[in-house]
């Protein structure tokens, strides 16, 4: 908070003398509650001195209006115009935050890089505990930039963090004023972070991802529960129920039983495609593909604490999945597969392209078995966390033996790395 022109001047001089790696300027002029927090003479100094040095400027709509001489901002189009005008003051990027826009079911921020606009959409969390959201967002952006993130990435991560913190603090009752504080340390306060007793997603759990298939189980006379039990016994680190031809009622019963099995072993259980089943059995998450409900919609339905995986075959799909709030990407078919009809084979080149384009953890899928799993992990891509396997585990008589064998192959590659 820079309350006077003199202080902004001193700050600018200091920044010239001691340049910083990235400068995030949150022009704290009007609080969410509407209070003016700086003297009117600061306006010129913000616009003419500080903004030109900034990597990003992050006004809320009231501040954007003030910076632009009191223009009214009521629509996304107004926010875009404001971002364009503020960009002319010289920062590299502008983020106009729409959290205070009335009558909107979403919290939409407009990001502008001088050429293109990106609308960042989040859930509007109904709570009075919003004190300090702007400061938190700006600080989170700075922290992400310090970690080496790109600007859009940093903004998205920061926005996700604020949304999660708001969600986890929404029912706190502290203090009397119109606004309450929110809890930045919510991840420590409720280690489950997830709803219920589940653990927050650990990308290392993608190491050996067992994906079930009801036809294969039928062929070998295995129930879904037995197959899942055997996969976990053999060392599967995460399980997905991919049951394409089972009736909903039977699926839910099996999913509930599998939840009990997975919970007692500390292995996350995801449901393929079916958000309804995931909600009904309180699964750890959902995996969706490009023709399923989007990750953004799934996130709205499941909330911030659940795991969402998205199948991606291209860098563009990976970028979209990240924007939509996915936790990991499933990339494949790396090799030809007969488990999923008409699934294009990407090969190592396709897998590499997706991994390199994203910061999200990736699990490779498609035709992976004991003979080729090692070669996938030997690619040594830092965000490639593991392999997802269907037939090489479940189209076999002894699921636990196959899983154990694959796990030991993956472990030996990891030990050599
Ligand atoms: C881990 C993982 N990766 C990819 C997929 C494929 O999902 P999708 O493209 O939606 O195809 P279906 O599995 O629904 O046929 C997956 N299931 N799991
Ligand atoms: C679901 C899916 N998505 C891409 S490939 C594939 C099938 C993987 O099955 P398998 O491991 O038997 O090749
Ligand atoms: Mg699907």
TrEMBL record:
<keyword id="KW-0479">Metal-binding</keyword>
<dbReference type="Pfam" id="PF02581">
    <property type="entry name" value="TMP-TENI"/>
</dbReference>
<dbReference type="InterPro" id="IPR013785">
    <property type="entry name" value="Aldolase_TIM"/>
</dbReference>
<dbReference type="GO" id="GO:0005524">
    <property type="term" value="F:ATP binding"/>
</dbReference>
<dbReference type="InterPro" id="IPR004399">
    <property type="entry name" value="HMP/HMP-P_kinase_dom"/>
</dbReference>
<feature type="domain" description="Pyridoxamine kinase/Phosphomethylpyrimidine kinase">
    <location>
        <begin position="1"/>
        <end position="178"/>
    </location>
</feature>
<dbReference type="InterPro" id="IPR029056">
    <property type="entry name" value="Ribokinase-like"/>
</dbReference>
<keyword id="KW-0067">ATP-binding</keyword>
<keyword id="KW-0460">Magnesium</keyword>
<dbReference type="GO" id="GO:0008902">
    <property type="term" value="F:hydroxymethylpyrimidine kinase activity"/>
</dbReference>
<keyword id="KW-0784">Thiamine biosynthesis</keyword>
<dbReference type="GO" id="GO:0009507">
    <property type="term" value="C:chloroplast"/>
</dbReference>
<dbReference type="InterPro" id="IPR034291">
    <property type="entry name" value="TMP_synthase"/>
</dbReference>
<keyword id="KW-0418">Kinase</keyword>
<dbReference type="InterPro" id="IPR036206">
    <property type="entry name" value="ThiamineP_synth_sf"/>
</dbReference>
<comment type="pathway">
    <text>Cofactor biosynthesis; thiamine diphosphate biosynthesis; thiamine phosphate from 4-amino-2-methyl-5-diphosphomethylpyrimidine and 4-methyl-5-(2-phosphoethyl)-thiazole: step 1/1.</text>
</comment>
<dbReference type="InterPro" id="IPR013749">
    <property type="entry name" value="PM/HMP-P_kinase-1"/>
</dbReference>
<keyword id="KW-0808">Transferase</keyword>
<dbReference type="Pfam" id="PF08543">
    <property type="entry name" value="Phos_pyr_kin"/>
</dbReference>
<protein>
    <recommendedName>
        <fullName>thiamine phosphate synthase</fullName>
        <ecNumber>2.5.1.3</ecNumber>
    </recommendedName>
</protein>
<dbReference type="GO" id="GO:0004789">
    <property type="term" value="F:thiamine-phosphate diphosphorylase activity"/>
</dbReference>
<feature type="domain" description="Thiamine phosphate synthase/TenI">
    <location>
        <begin position="208"/>
        <end position="393"/>
    </location>
</feature>
<keyword id="KW-0547">Nucleotide-binding</keyword>
<dbReference type="GO" id="GO:0046872">
    <property type="term" value="F:metal ion binding"/>
</dbReference>
<dbReference type="InterPro" id="IPR022998">
    <property type="entry name" value="ThiamineP_synth_TenI"/>
</dbReference>
<dbReference type="GO" id="GO:0009229">
    <property type="term" value="P:thiamine diphosphate biosynthetic process"/>
</dbReference>
<dbReference type="GO" id="GO:0008972">
    <property type="term" value="F:phosphomethylpyrimidine kinase activity"/>
</dbReference>
<keyword id="KW-0511">Multifunctional enzyme</keyword>
<dbReference type="GO" id="GO:0009228">
    <property type="term" value="P:thiamine biosynthetic process"/>
</dbReference>
């Amino acid at each position: 908070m820079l309350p006077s022109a003199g202080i902004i001047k001193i700050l600018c001089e200091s920044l010239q003398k001691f340049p910083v790696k990235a400068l995030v300027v949150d022009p704290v002029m009007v609080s969410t509650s509407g209070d003016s927090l700086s003297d009117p003479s600061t306006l010129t100094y913000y616009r003419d001195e500080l903004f030109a040095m900034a990597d990003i400027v992050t006004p809320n709509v009231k501040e954007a209006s003030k910076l632009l001489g009191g223009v009214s901002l009521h629509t996304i189009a107004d926010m875009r115009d404001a971002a364009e005008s503020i960009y002319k003051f010289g920062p590299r990027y502008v983020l106009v935050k729409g959290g205070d826009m009335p009558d909107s079911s979403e919290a939409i921020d407009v990001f502008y890089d001088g050429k293109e606009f990106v609308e960042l959409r989040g859930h509007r969390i109904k709570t009075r505990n919003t004190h300090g959201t702007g400061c938190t967002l700006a600080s989170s952006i700075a922290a992400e930039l310090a970690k080496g993130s790109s600007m859009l990435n940093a903004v998205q991560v920061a926005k996700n963090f604020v949304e999660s913190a708001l969600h986890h603090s929404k029912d706190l009752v502290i203090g009397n004023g119109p606004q309450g504080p929110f809890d930045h340390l919510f991840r420590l306060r409720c280690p489950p972070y997830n709803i219920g007793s589940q653990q927050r997603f650990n990308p290392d759990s993608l190491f050996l991802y067992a994906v079930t298939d009801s036809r294969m189980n039928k062929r070998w006379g295995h129930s879904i529960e037995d197959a899942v039990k055997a996969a976990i016994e053999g060392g599967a680190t995460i399980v997905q129920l991919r049951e394409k031809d089972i009736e909903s009622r039977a699926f839910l019963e099996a999913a509930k039983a599998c939840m009990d099995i997975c919970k007692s072993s500390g292995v996350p259980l995801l449901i393929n495609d079916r958000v309804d089943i995931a909600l009904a059995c309180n699964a750890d998450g959902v995996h969706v593909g490009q023709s399923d409900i989007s990750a953004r919609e799934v996130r709205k339905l499941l909330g911030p604490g659940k795991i969402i995986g998205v199948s991606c075959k291209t860098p563009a799909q990976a970028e979209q999945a990240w924007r939509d709030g996915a936790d990991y990407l499933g990339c494949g078919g790396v090799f030809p597969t007969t488990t999923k009809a008409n699934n294009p084979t990407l090969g190592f080149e396709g897998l590499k392209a997706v991994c390199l384009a994203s910061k999200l953890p990736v699990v490779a899928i498609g035709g992976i078995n004991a003979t080729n799993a090692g070669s996938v992990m030997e690619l040594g891509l830092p965000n490639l966390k593991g392999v997802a396997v269907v037939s090489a585990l479940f189209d076999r008589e002894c699921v636990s033996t196959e899983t154990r064998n694959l796990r030991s192959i993956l472990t030996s590659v990891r030990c050599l790395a």
